[in-house]
Amino acid sequence: MTRIPSPHDQATVAMRESDVVPGGPAVPARSSRLLTRLLSSAEVPVLVAVPLLLGVCAYFQVDQAGLLTLIMTFVCVGLFFVNFERSSPGLRQVMPIVVLVALACAVRILFAPFPSVKPVSAICILAGVVFGRRSGFMVGALSALVSNFFFGQGPWTPWQMYAWGLVGYVAGVLSTHGAFEHRGVLSVYGFVSALGYGFILNSWYVVAYVHPITVPAALLAYGAGIVFDIMHGTATVVFLAAIYLPWKVKLERIQRKYALCDAKT
Amino acid sequence: MSEEQHTGTDITHDSRSAFDLYHPAVPLVYFTIVIVLSMAAFQPVFCVLSLAGALIYGCYLRGWRAVVRSLRWSLPMVLIIALLNPFFSAFGTTQLFVLLGRTIYLESLVYGLCMGLMLTAMLQWFSNAAVVLTFEKILAIFGNVLPTIGLMLSMIMRFVPMLARRGREVEGVQQACTAIAPRSVRESTSLRVREASVLMGWSLEDSLRTADAMRARGWGGPNSRSVYQRYRFGSADLALTVSFALLGLVCAFLAWVACSQFAFYPTITPLIMWWGYVPYAGLLLLPLFIEFEEALRWMR
After folding, report:
1. Could A216 and B204 be called an inter-chain contact, meaning their C-beta atoms sit closer than 8 Å?
2. Contact list, B123 vs chain A (CB under 8 Å)
3. Whole-number Å distance between alpha carbons of B252 and B246
4. Are A98 and B155 a contacting pair at CB < 8 A?
5. Distance CA A125, CA A129 (A)
6. Contact B6/A107, CB-based, under 8 Å?
7. Between chains, do B164 and A66 touch, taking CB under 8 Å as contact?
8. Residues B42-67, buried b or exposed e (16+ Cβ, 10 A)?
9. How far is B204 from chain A (nearest CA, A)?
């Protein structure tokens, strides 16, 4: 088994897997590298900009807030997709994401009668921890997109893609800083991230569909969802408790066996 | 897990709209324009027009039974939005009645009603778009723009049913080993977790071998990929797309005029007969015109 350098998450590295193929694309030009660096450094600002824009729209009671914030999430998810594409990931880098997303969708369909029991958050977190923050985002975003082909697409799709992507991304960032060494922190993060997921989706509802926004109206919107959010959080903690360690060990073993690069950048 | 448990839209059905004769970008542009306008043009007449257009086209595409079925759960939602808005955002001047110590105003009731109409219209347009823009068409559009993501999406769509099949296989193997048959809830839970882990490991290793096989057969070469069904963006597609875009621009301008003249608060601006609504109605009914033109061509 040859070791193939696959800079899936290290976008600035010029060596690509396809370079090994004769006639594959050459090393990117300097301007293209600059663009790559620019695009990947835009990730964090854009991630932060989405909730920021939601807050600004709510505070100033902007008229077209629903459309405006929806476009912002499109930009955010699109940026991650384009960056992933530009890093020209090798097939081996892509496969773990594909399998994890398919598993997340299959289990979400399996638990379809219980809408709050969603395994997606737990699987995003695991992907973020093992394969790095960008893979975490990709797993979250693609799980939302694909599972909605079964559950029905709607204006909520980009929001779910963003929110689950964020769950995976933050898990990746936290785990590189060693936050998940302690299992308690992991469980707390699992619960809080599910609440945050609900908070983002409810906030979009409030910003887009409640006008003028008043404190009781906003509280009612959040209150209506709180039971589901708590159930989602509990389900995530339970899923994490069941699969985190066995799956992490298994994924890391496969990572070593197939020489997938350790992409925790 | 069985295939019957797939809820929501059936993604494998054959779409049967006149849009099938055009490049998939044409319906994508159309539905984007209509959905954005439905969201942006928040004025009672525009909301009603959008909903009516969505329902009529939905009846054509999906049949009235499917439309009624989808309305059955969205109508209660509309009512909740419509009734809760005046209860919690009590603004306006025309007092209707006092309920539970809160004054209900006509203006915020109408506002909530419009919000509900707009939301229903948008959901209906999404359902219509899901019939026309099948998964294959979406892949055909984005497959060469974002090739890796396109590949991932198509692999995921194939993996979901495959995982279900393999899951049953793993379950069968575990059940065959009667010595480890679960005797308590705890044991049956750990059995399920074990099954899921086996499924994950098996599928992941298998997929990595697939990746190697694909690479060995020249995947990732310099040429762009072909698609199963070829779509050509011809002059008819261009003409239709441009006319959608122009009509959309006109409607956006008219909607902007209508919305800037209209206000819900403090009192609702009276609605008048206006020619400006006609282009929007035309835009919404355009797919039906295309369908009828196509039907006429076949009857001749």
Report:
1. no
2. 154
3. 10
4. yes
5. 6
6. no
7. no
8. bbbbbbebbbbbbbbbbebbbeeeeb
9. 6
Task: Residue A202: count other Cβ atoms within 10 Å of its Cβ.
Answer: 19
User: Who among A85, A91, A146 is closest to B157 (CB)?
Assistant: A146
Find, among A118, A74, A94, the residue nearest to A232 by Cα.
Answer: A118
More confident residue, A114 or A159: A159
Cross-chain Cβ contact B160/A64 below 8 Å: no
Exposure b/e, B188-225, CB count within 10 A at least 16 = b: eeebebebbbbbbbebbbebbeebbeebeeebbeeeee
Q: What is the pLDDT of residues A84-141, one digit of tens each?
A: 988 888 888 899 999 999 999 998 888 888 878 888 999 999 999 999 999 999 999 9
pTM: 0.81
Q: Tens of pLDDT along B45-104?
A: 999 999 999 999 999 998 899 899 888 877 887 787 777 777 766 666 777 777 666 777
Angle at B82 (CA atoms; ends B81, B84), nearest 5 degrees: 65
Mutation for B interface: A118, A149, A213, most B CBs within 10 A: A149
Domain map (residue ranges) of chain A = 39-257
Distance CA B134, CA B66 (A): 18
How buried is residue B100: exposed, middle or buried, by Cβ count under 10 Å (0-12/13-18/19+)? exposed
Residues 6+ apart with CB under 8 A from A24: A16, A18, B220, B221, B222
Choose among A102, A154, A220: nearest Cβ to B163.
A102
CB–CB of A112 and B5 under 8 A?
yes
B274: left (phi over 0), alpha (psi -120 to 50) or beta: beta
Q: What gap in Å lies between CA B98 and CA B104, rounded to an integer?
A: 6
* Interface-testing mutation among A20, A61, A99, A145, with chain B (most B C-beta atoms within 10 A): A99
- Dihedral sign for Cα atoms in the order B265, B270, B274, B278: positive
Q: In 3-state terms, what secondary structure has residue B237?
A: helix
A98 and B207 in contact by Cβ < 8 A?
yes
Contact by Cβ (8 Å): B248, B283? yes
Secondary-structure percent of chain B, ordered helix, strand, coil, rounded to 5: 70, 5, 25
Tell me which chain A residue has its CA closest to the CA of residue B125: A154
Topology of domain A39-257 in CATH is Arp2/3 complex 21 kDa subunit ARPC3 (1.10.1760)
Candidates A89, A170, A101, A82; CA nearest to A139 is A101
Residue A256, burial from CB neighbour count under 10 angstroms (0-12, 13-18, 19+): exposed
Residue of B nearest to A219 (CA): B88
If residue B96 lies in a helix (H) or strand (E), which one and from where to where? Answer: strand B95-99
